[in-house]
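Aim 2, interim progress: modelling of the (2E)-Hexenoyl-CoA-bound target.
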Amino acid sequence: MFRVSGVLRSAAKTYENIIVEIRPNKVALITLNRPKALNALSTPLLNELVDALQVLQNDASVGAIVLTGSEKAFAAGADIKEMSTKSYMEVFQNRLFGQTDAIVQKIQKPVIAAVNGFALGGGCELAMMCDFILAGENAKFGQPEIKLGTIPGIGGTQRLARAVGKSKAMELVLTGRFMDAAEAERSGLVSRIVPAKDLVEEAVKTAGTMAAFSQPIVSIAKECVNAAFETTLAEGLRLERRLFYSTFATNDQKEGMAAFSDKRDPKFTNN
Ligand SMILES: CCC/C=C/C(=O)SCCNC(=O)CCNC(=O)[C@H](O)C(C)(C)COP(=O)([O-])OP(=O)([O-])OC[C@H]1O[C@@H](n2cnc3c(N)ncnc32)[C@H](O)[C@@H]1OP(=O)([O-])[O-]
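Predicted structure of the complex, ligand included:
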């Protein structure tokens, strides 16, 4: 489903496993919608999610995206029932979960994961692919793949280690223990905890803050922070300085600084 503030968009895309809603503050809200399976990440769901993100990336009326699930589960993992009988050649040749690479590589707009309930296995990995995580106080994070005789395969070993450090990541991956929202915030996995019932609206409001800024500048800032996970400090600092200089080639930098001097709100035009 694809809705604009509750109304179905005319050039609507039909999705069966997600709901996409465009809010008036230039925020797109994507809700994972397989409640009976606790939003387990089946191939059709992941294909729809990646498709929707690419549509929203190309939609100039959208400045930021929120990805959420239900109060019980953000996503309880990759779909175990779908995976259980697959052979090595099937997962290898069909590049199981390969479509998710596009989430990190192709989406320049900020994406917030608003996590209530379980974010386990692929669900925790999906949340970590987003730019930051806001957690409901009932959130539970974990990488329990070890209990199923497998390991995380959508970035869990890498992103969790970078987010919470080796010791905690190793413990969670090797024991399958879940961590609650308070522990996740303490260890840096989530940026903030919000009452569960307020979580989605708080995430939409936070996304709206970002959507009101210059979109190319927001994307540049996102690119710089992401580079911190890929480069040496010297390379990262060089990239940041070059991209900082590049912002001076935009009208929005001129407008932002002029508005400050004029004591008025800036009118960003995204160029
Ligand atoms: C990335 C590469 C590697 C693999 C990564 C992974 O993510 S591996 C996965 C890592 N994740 C895990 O190992 C967590 C697996 N899940 C659990 O341990 C529990 O569901 C729970 C503790 C999250 C909630 O317990 P609860 O007693 O409150 O609820 P409940 O248990 O009654 O579930 C309700 C329904 O949802 C269904 N369903 C749930 N999850 C999945 C799933 N991932 N898949 C499919 N289905 C799933 C469940 O079968 C049931 O349907 P049924 O049978 O009635 O038709």
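The longest helix spans residues 43-57. The radius of gyration is 19 Å.
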